[in-house]
Design brief:
By secondary structure, this protein is α/β, with parallel strands linked by helices. The chain contains nine helices and 13 strands. The chain is globular, with a radius of gyration of 19 Å.
Length: 294
């Protein structure tokens, strides 16, 4: 029997990694997760790995997108995972700036050789940021909705009720139709959707462009950071930063720091080889360097 392969997609900061982390922590299956971080630090892969239940393997395809610059790394990684006898299912998390058409075409072509079956495509949205006009008129968002088999309205705890209602009304008669349209918060996906098979929304024709994003940056250091000043910097840049993911050694220990949807999130982290960060936005890396303790 072919391994089920679940593609879990969505825009930057919509909660894909949190959803995968929750699922693998609770699933009894041995799950292999292939993560395409938008930067080089492997932040999302490390975060999912921390949820390991003894039946988890995480592989990272860093930098670029699985749909273009990182495509050459995707198929060897998938083939390797499919050859492992302990693996019972595979989850692929593309970068939040990836497009699904070229990725789906690669997966369809590779499925017979690698030995996996593409399960219904799951796409997460934030209803507070995805209004009907956005879904219908902006090619990037319409593309995500078109290619989804299962649409998940995540972060509903933070969205106004009228925005959630408008989101669901917009998708009720969407073509192609969806297997399921779900409402959730904190990435809590019902486990039964991972048992669904078939009814894949086929990739479309034509050429699509990535969403236009600001410049990106990366940073790495083996020094300790001043947490108070680091948080002040992140709070300052949050409104203008599309995404920021970092792990830092501070005087208060190792911390994960993120910017998503204009909010700064701080969590405890396991020690890493070095402090590192990736971001999409106009942050000057020298500003981070100046926050290091001498």
């Amino acid at each position: 029997m072919s391994l089920p392969l679940h593609l879990i997609a969505g825009a930057l900061g919509v909660g894909k990694t949190s959803a995968i982390r929750r699922f693998v922590a609770q699933s009894p299956d041995y799950t292999a997760v292939l993560v395409n971080d938008f930067g080089e630090t492997g932040y999302d892969a490390a975060l999912i790995g921390e949820a390991g239940n003894g039946k988890l393997q995480v592989e990272n395809v860093p930098g670029g997108c699985l749909c273009c610059t990182s495509a050459a790394q995707l198929l060897p990684a998938l083939k390797m995972l499919c050859e492992k006898p302990e693996v019972e299912r595979i989850i692929v998390e593309p970068s939040g700036v990836a497009l699904l058409d070229p990725l789906l075409k690669m997966l369809y072509a590779a499925a017979p050789e690698c030995g996996f079956e593409l399960a219904p495509v799951i796409v997460l949205f934030d209803p507070a940021k995805t209004r009907p006009a956005t879904l219908k008129l902006i090619p990037y968002w319409k593309h995500l909705a078109d290619r989804a088999d299962i649409i998940v309205a995540n972060r509903c705890d933070l969205a106004p009720p009228e925005a959630i209602d408008a989101f669901f009304q917009c998708l009720e008669n969407w073509e192609p139709p969806k297997l399921k349209i779900l409402k959730t918060s904190h990435g809590e996906l019902p486990p039964e959707i991972f048992d669904l098979r078939g009814h894949i929304a086929k990739s479309g024709e034509g050429h699509h462009h990535h969403a236009e994003l600001p410049p990106a940056g990366t940073f790495r250091s083996d020094k300790t950071f001043q947490l108070k000043k680091l948080m002040e910097l992140l709070e300052e840049i949050a409104p203008q930063t599309e995404r920021f993911k970092g792990i830092f050694q501070t005087e208060q220990g190792w911390l994960r720091l993120e910017i998503a949807n204009g909010l700064v999130i701080q969590k405890e982290a396991s020690p890493a080889a070095a402090s590192s960060a990736d971001w999409i936005g106009s942050l000057d890396s020298h500003r981070l360097a100046n926050l290091q303790k001498n």
